[in-house]
Design brief:
The protein is α/β, with parallel strands linked by helices. It folds into two domains: 55 residues, 3-Layer(aba) Sandwich (Severin), CATH 3.40.20.10; 120 residues, Severin (3-Layer(aba) Sandwich). The protein is globular.
Length: 208
């Protein structure tokens, strides 16, 4: 009989870890993000638990492993990191080859082409750095938000996008990861319109 796996934290518990050097604003932002995840992905039923540096519960360490030695940070480093992270993402529009040809005929530039199983898809860069305006997302199209530098690529599917675009969106994201030289461990998250996560929304200003 196989041994039972070690116990893990209840999926209805969200742990917010706060480093010893974090400031009040960072602590508040982390709690706000956790609360947004609870409300949008756990239907408001999850319990938030604040974990102070050095007071990690055994269940947390069983999931993450032994705590390494963490380097001390500084306000200056935080400011540089915040600025870098805020501009790290790129937003692309993914369209069928036919739609892209029509757009090109109308004078729209900046297209690159990737293949899918049923034909060809074109990626048009919509914005070179975040934060983005929510108005850039259109229900008629699919979009790829490339945050591969942080290990994540998002695919946003407009509710009116054609079936070919919706089915090819994952392959397009994988092509972006390969082309941009991101780590093969980069995660792809598919988000239908209306089901955006807090982590996705953070790349946009004034999400409604």
């Amino acid at each position: 009989m196989a041994p039972s796996p070690p116990p893990t934290p209840c999926p209805q518990t969200l742990l917010v870890w706060c480093g010893s050097g974090c400031n009040v604003l960072e602590r508040s932002r982390a709690q706000e993000l956790a609360a947004a995840i609870r409300d949008s992905e756990r239907r408001g039923r999850a319990r938030l638990e604040i974990v102070a540096d050095g007071e990690e519960p055994p269940e947390m360490l069983q999931v993450l492993g032994p705590k390494p030695t963490l380097p001390e940070g500084s306000p200056e480093e935080d400011a540089v990191a915040d600025q870098s992270n805020a501009q790290a993402a790129i937003l692309y529009k993914a369209r069928t080859r036919w739609d892209a040809m029509v757009a090109l005929a109308l004078g729209m530039a900046g297209n690159t082409t990737v293949s899918d199983a049923t034909g060809r898809m074109d990626l048009t860069q919509v914005a070179a750095s975040s934060p983005f305006s929510q108005s850039l997302l259109c229900s008629d199209d699919c979009f790829v938000l490339d945050n591969g530098a942080a290990g994540k690529v998002y695919v946003w599917k407009g509710r009116k996008a054609n079936e070919q675009e919706r089915q090819a969106a994952l392959r397009v994201a994988e092509e972006v990861i390969a082309r941009m030289g991101h780590s093969p461990r980069t995660q792809v998250e598919i988000l239908p319109q209306g089901h955006e996560t807090p982590l996705f929304k953070q790349f946009f200003t004034g999400w409604k």
